[in-house]
Specification:
Elements: H1 17-36, E1 40-41, E2 47-49, H2 51-54, H3 59-63, E3 67-70, E4 73-77, H4 82-91, E5 100-104, E6 107-109, E7 121-130, H5 136-151, E8 159-165, H6 166-174, H7 185-192, H8 195-198, H9 200-207, H10 218-227, H11 233-237, H12 245-259, E9 266-268, E10 282-288, E11 297-301, H13 305-308, E12 316-322, H14 323-332, E13 345-349, H15 355-367, E14 372-374, H16 381-390, E15 395-399, H17 401-406, E16 408-413, E17 419-423
Helix pairs in contact: 1-5, 5-12, 9-10
Length: about 425
C-alpha cells in the first residue's frame, strides 16, 4: 500500500491558522461592505442538482463541473452560486418583497486548467439584486466593488472596471453578421470572452472554425472581433440602432457612476461579454490595471435566468468576486497585512496541585472577554514564557505552591517584564 499523500487534491488548499486569519480578514471586508449597502447574507448547499447548472450556464462551466450520480440522482458541486440563489428566489417567489439585496461568500468548485489566481476550489463574494430592472442596481453593485477595493488599499491606478452590454452587442451583431444566424450568439460570447486569454487572432480562428458551434466566414469573424475591440461607447453606438435601449441604458449607468464619484475607476470595453449564457444586459469585469492577472471580479444582468429555470420573470443583476486573484494582487502591491495570532493571556500551573485553580482562573478571564490559553502538559516555565511571547500574549499568569498558598497569581507583563500579584478571587 502506497503512503498517503499529505498534499490536498490538486487545485485545492489547506488553511493553516495563518492562512485562515488572512481569509477571515478578506471576508470581513466583504461582510462590511455588503452590510454598508444594506444587503443580507444567504447561503445554499455546496451540492446541488446538476441540472441547475447545465440548463442555462454556458458550455465551459458545464464541462468544468464536479458531478456524480448517486441513488439515481445527478448531483454536482456548485461551480457558482447564482443558479442556487435563483432557485431560492423561485421557491419563495410569491412571498419575497422586492427588490432583494442578498449577498453570500460560497465555496465553489470548477475542474479547470490552473493558472495564477485560478484554482479548482475557491471562495467567491457574491452580491445580487433581484426585482430592479434599471441601471440603478448595476451602479450600486459596482460602487460596492469599488468600496471593497478601497478598504483593501487599492485605487483606480491599481484596478479598472470595464463595462459593456450583452444586449448592445447582441442587437448590433444581429443587425449585420448574425442576421440569419441569431442562435449562435451565446456560443459566440463564450469564444469572445477568451480574447484576453487567447488573443484576437486565436478567437477569429475559433469563430471561423467550420466544425465549431459558430462557424462564421473568416471575414465575418474578423469583423466581430474588430467590432468588440471598441473602447469608446460612441464608436459602437454608431453601429447600433438609432433608438437603441441598450445604448441609452449604458449612458445612464455611466452618468450614475459619475455621480457616485467613480469615473476614474470605469471605462467602456465592448469585448466584455462574460462567458456565462444567462447574461442579458450590462456586464462588467474588474482587472488589475497592469493586465497581469485574470479578472478580479465580474458580473452583470441576468433578467431571464429565473424564466429559464421554469420560474416567473424577475429582473436580476449580480457579481462574483473571487478570493484567489485579489490576494495575488494585494501581495504584488505589498498590501497583505501582517495578522499575528490574537491572544491576551496565558495561564501556567507549576504542578498538578495548582491545575484546578489555574483552570478556574482561565475560565474567569475568558468570561471577562479575554482570549486565554491554559498551558497543557508540564513544559518548563522558560519554554512556556517563550511560547506565550511568540504567540503575542500580553501577560502570563503563574500559579505555583507559594502563590496558591497566598491566594494569588503572579502576573508578568511580557512586554516590560514587570510582575505583580493578583488575588485569585478578584
Amino acid at each position: 500500500m502506497s503512503a498517503l499523500s499529505v498534499k490536498p487534491p490538486r487545485g485545492t488548499r489547506d488553511f493553516y491558522p495563518e492562512d485562515l486569519r488572512l481569509r477571515d480578514w478578506l471576508f470581513e471586508h466583504f461582510h462590511h461592505v455588503a452590510r454598508r449597502f444594506g444587503f443580507e447574507q444567504v447561503d445554499a448547499p455546496v451540492v446541488e442538482h446538476a441540472e441547475l447548472f447545465t440548463r442555462k450556464a454556458g458550455e465551459e462551466i458545464v464541462e468544468q463541473l464536479y458531478h456524480f450520480t448517486m441513488h439515481d440522482r445527478h448531483l454536482a458541486l456548485r461551480g457558482e452560486i447564482t443558479p442556487s440563489i435563483a432557485r431560492m428566489v423561485m421557491a419563495r417567489a410569491g412571498g419575497l418583497r422586492m427588490p432583494l439585496r442578498w449577498y453570500s461568500i460560497p465555496q465553489c468548485w470548477r475542474y479547470e486548467r490552473m493558472t495564477r489566481g485560478r484554482r479548482r476550489e475557491h471562495y467567491q463574494w457574491n452580491m445580487d439584486i433581484w426585482g430592479e430592472p434599471g441601471p440603478d442596481a448595476e451602479a450600486e453593485l459596482i460602487a460596492a466593488v469599488c468600496m471593497a477595493l478601497e478598504r483593501m488599499g487599492l485605487g483606480p491606478a491599481d484596478v479598472r472596471i470595464r463595462i459593456s452590454s450583452r444586449a448592445l452587442v447582441e442587437e448590433t451583431l444581429r443587425r449585420d453578421v448574425l442576421r440569419r444566424r441569431p442562435e449562435v450568439f451565446e456560443p459566440l460570447c463564450v469564444m469572445v470572452d477568451k480574447i484576453p486569454k487567447l488573443g484576437a487572432d486565436a478567437v477569429v480562428e475559433l469563430l471561423s472554425d467550420a466544425d465549431g458551434p459558430v462557424a462564421l466566414e473568416p471575414p465575418a469573424a474578423r469583423q466581430v472581433v474588430e467590432l468588440l475591440s471598441a473602447q469608446d461607447l460612441d464608436e459602437i453606438a454608431g453601429a447600433a440602432a438609432p433608438d437603441s435601449a441598450a445604448v441609452a441604458e449604458l449612458r445612464q449607468l455611466f452618468d450614475l457612476l459619475g455621480a457616485y464619484g467613480l469615473a476614474d475607476w470605469i471605462r467602456f470595453d465592448a469585448s466584455v461579454v462574460r462567458g456565462l449564457a444567462y447574461y442579458t444586459g450590462v456586464v462588467f469585469e474588474a482587472f488589475d490595471a497592469a493586465g497581469a492577472l485574470r479578472s478580479v471580479c465580474g458580473g452583470g444582468r441576468y433578467d431571464r435566468l429565473l424564466e429559464s429555470l421554469g420560474g416567473p420573470a424577475v429582473p436580476a443583476v449580480g457579481f462574483g468576486f473571487g478570493d484567489a486573484v485579489i490576494l495575488e494582487l494585494l501581495a504584488e502591491k505589498g498590501l497583505v497585512p501582517d495578522l499575528p495570532r490574537e491572544l491576551d493571556d496565558v495561564v501556567y500551573a507549576f504542578g498538578t496541585a495548582e491545575r484546578p485553580a489555574a483552570a478556574q482562573l482561565a475560565m474567569r478571564l475568558r468570561r471577562d472577554g479575554r482570549r486565554v490559553e491554559l498551558v497543557l502538559g508540564r513544559p518548563k516555565l522558560k519554554r512556556a514564557m517563550a511560547d506565550a511571547d511568540r504567540a503575542g500574549a500580553a501577560r502570563i499568569w503563574l500559579l505555583g505552591p507559594d502563590e496558591l498558598g497566598r491566594g494569588v497569581a503572579k502576573v508578568r507583563d511580557l512586554a516590560t517584564g514587570e510582575e505583580r500579584d493578583e488575588k485569585l478571587g478578584d
